[in-house]
Amino acid sequence: MRLKSTTILTGLALLATAASAQQDWRPTYTTYGTPGLIEMPSGLSDPSGQFTLSYGGFGNHQRATLSFQISDRLGGSFRYSRIGENTGPGTDPTFDRSFDIRFRLVDEGRYLPAVTVGLQDFLGTGLYSGEYVVATKHFGENLRVTAGLGWGRLGTQNPIDNPLAQIDDRFETRPTNPFGTGGDFGQGGTVATDVFFRGDASLFGGVEYRFSDRLTGIVEYSGDAYVREDRLGTFEPSSPYNVGVVYKPRDEYQLSASVLQGETLAFSAHFTIDPTNRLSVSGLDPAPIPVAVRPPDARAAASWNRSPAAETALRDLVVTALETEGVEVKAVEFTDRSVRIRYANTRYRTESQPMGRISRILTQSMPPAIEDFIFEPERQGIPLSRIVIRRSDVEQLENEVGATEASFARAAITDAAGTEAGLVRIPPEEGALSYGVRPYLSTRYFDPDRPIDIDVGVRASVSYRFSPNLVFDGVAQWRLTDAPEPTDSSTPAVYPVRTDGDRYNDEGNPYISRLTLAHFGRPGTDLYSRVTVGYLERMYAGVSTELLWKPVDSRLALGAEVNYVQQRAFDGGLGFRDYDVWTGHASAYYDLGNGYHTQLDVGRYLAGDWGATISLDREFENGWRVGAFATRTDISFEDFGEGSFDKGLRITIPTDWTIGTPTRQAFTLDLRSLQRDGGARLSVQDRLYGVVRDAHAPELESTWGRYWR
Q: Where is the signal peptide (predicted)?
């Protein structure tokens, strides 16, 4: 039975004229892990920056989804699904990866609903491929109504003629693939633009009623007839209606149960994370000492006793006092009116917070005649910037409204290259040698044969600094868990630069994961250099060179990296295989502002392929970082294999966000759809942009709120 296309337009028009103030009622989530009803999407969006972790499904369909609200209007999801082909014994399930994206076109107002347009599984195999336009409106405090129009998978239930065909005849038909969802997705991983909003469409919608703050009931009319599942005999729907309940014990948790299309039970669980809110109590780190304000007559002092003994005593006092704040003093210089400290921040996630704490300490310990505090943060033995803060400003602004903005505006930030003269180096207390042994846990995801693979073992490390900027580093590991059987997922046209990684796990234990000698330098103003030689990573050894141009006050940085590497032996020792390659990239980095950062790398990859990688990351003030990347090279989709090209997501969670005490440690999770050979890049420790940018003006400005903490 086909409905007139005007039916949905009439319904949307009636919905748009309803008058009601939007209520503070958070979205519920579908079994796909997206804002919606039971299986159908809604017009609502999560708060900007929110993560939603979901797991749900029915029968032999299970879906794990990570959703992220990229901005106020734009949201995205990555989904990993297990789909049983049938219920018979001895049959293997399908593991499917898919990406969604949605954009809220219209905000809900007094008369207008929230309207969202979305693409479901637009970058995958097409098993769940569909598009939609949907509107949602609140009526009173406890009623919410949703109506929408779906295409693709969402347009198979009692379909209607596509209303967009009135604009262009090409919207009348939708190409089909073996999954019955439209489009030729080939190896998967490509954007099938030829199917978007094409073919028949279906009406969907539903009603949500909130019985209490914790319990919501939902009735939904689905646009998905489960054509493929019905054909395979894994699901035979008998009704287009879904009925369910949502239980929310806390704002961060939702549990859902429903009956799908009169046929089967479905369950889902959802956990939301707001990166701007800590899991632990904020501010468990000790409070900073108060600022000592000089008497007016003392400020005018022109000099102080600068005898060698006095300077030595004062220098020792600075080293001891700053050590309590997790600051390792590398060098100090005194003049009649200033103190200059070159130091390494070993405790705080940002470079702003230790500057504020050092400033407070200096007001307590420096002679009254000293007016300028000069900070030179150092990493890997190289100075990153020079920040001059007037003592008078610290004294004046500590308790003033608007002190954060005012203190940053008064700070002078310049390059620190070529400023060695006058500094007195402080010998490291712990010596040049450091070592340790600790357990480790590593994870790999999305292998078709092993969706989740976990390694547990012991890691031993040793480091020796021949000079502040010349360091030897070695890491060896012993895996305690059993290694999986190696699988061959390589393609004949591309050398297996990454897909034979399982052989390293199978044949090497214990193994040397890194054994390098690295030199860091400042060749000139705005320039930084790195040369790393040795066993650079688990699979490759050789030499890696890098040069970075990064003005201290610029949002733009340019870099170049050239590497020559040879593949290591599978046993993880000191031997080699026959494969060697020149690889390298020219890179551009840009801080877009408001926490958004982008990077473009163009060059040659490990398999000898030429191409480019583009990435976009969003960073939060508390250290959370979420990003996506994609690489396209001259390797064809067919030769690349499943996934068509390299792409993925990455999430960094700072440890201080979870425990509430300051630390520079963080947990990083890389979610690649698949690790293939095309677009594979060398893994090198301490690439320069990550080493440098935290102490430069744009990053300092964005984190300066921590200066007074």
A: 1-21
Characterize the bridge pairing of strands 372-379 and 338-345: parallel
Cis peptide, bond prior to residue 510, ω within 30 of zero: yes
Over residues 287-295, mean pLDDT: 90
Q: How far is CA 521 from the centre of its chain?
A: 29
Q: Which residues pair with 629 in a beta bridge?
A: 615, 648
How many angstroms separate the CA atoms of 221 and 137, rounded? 16
Question: What secondary structure does DSSP assign to 567-595, as a single string?
Answer: EEPTTSSS-EEEEEEEEEEEEEEEEEETT
Kindly indicate the confidence band of residue 16, based on its pLDDT and cuts at 50, 70 and 90: very low
The pair phi, psi for residue 708, each rounded to 5°, is -95, 10
Q: What pLDDT is recorded for position 419?
A: 85
**CA 549, CA 115: separation in Å to the nearest integer?**
45
Q: Residues 174-221: pLDDT tens digits? A: 886 544 455 445 556 677 788 899 999 999 999 999 999 999 999 999
For helices 352-365 and 308-323, angle between their N-to-C axes, nearest 10 degrees: 140
Cβ(128)–Cβ(144) below 8 Å = no
10 Å CB burial of residue 359 (0-12, 13-18, 19+) is: buried
Give the number of other Cβ atoms within 10 Å of residue 109's Cβ: 14
| Distance from C-alpha of 49 to C-alpha of 76, rounded to nearest angstrom | 11
Q: Tell me the CA distances in angstroms from 375 to 323, 340, 552, one per residue in order.
A: 15, 6, 14
Q: How far apart are CA 381 and CA 373, in angstroms?
A: 21
- Which residues, 6+ apart, have CB-to-CB distance to 308 below 8 Å? none
Confidence band of 17 (pLDDT split at 50, 70, 90): very low
Q: What's the maximum distance between 2 C-alpha atoms anywhere in the chain?
A: 97
pLDDT in tens, 123-134: 767 788 999 999
Query: pLDDT tens digit string along 335-375?
Result: 999 999 999 999 999 999 999 999 999 999 999 999 999 99
- Residue 102 per-residue DSSP state: E
Candidates 223, 184, 178; CA nearest to 200 is 223
CB 85, CB 91: distance < 8 Å: yes
* 454 Cβ contact list (under 8 Å, min separation 6): 441, 442, 443, 481
Tokens representing residue 365 in the block:
């310990």
What is the residue-wise DSSP string for 253-298?
A: EEEEEEEETTTEEEEEEEEEE-TTS-SS-S--SPPPPPPPPPPHHH
Place of tokens 């089967």: 264
Amino acid at 230: D
CB 30 within 8 Å of CB 23:
no
Radius of gyration for the alpha carbons in the chain, expressed in angstroms and rounded: 29
What is the residue whose two structure tokens read 């610029």? 554
DSSP secondary structure code for residue 299 in this structure: H
Compute the half-sphere exposure of residue 203: CA atoms within 13 Å on the CB side of its CA: 18
Name which of 228, 219, 225 is nearest 238 in CA terms: 225
Q: If we measure between CA atoms, which residue out of 83, 78, 172, 182 comes closest to residue 129?
A: 182
- Which of 659, 613, 654 shows the shortest CA–CA distance to 632? 613
All domains in the chain, ordered by first residue: 5-273 (2.40.160.40), 505-694 (2.40.160)
Q: Of 84, 458, 37, 48, whose CA–CA distance to 254 is shortest?
A: 37
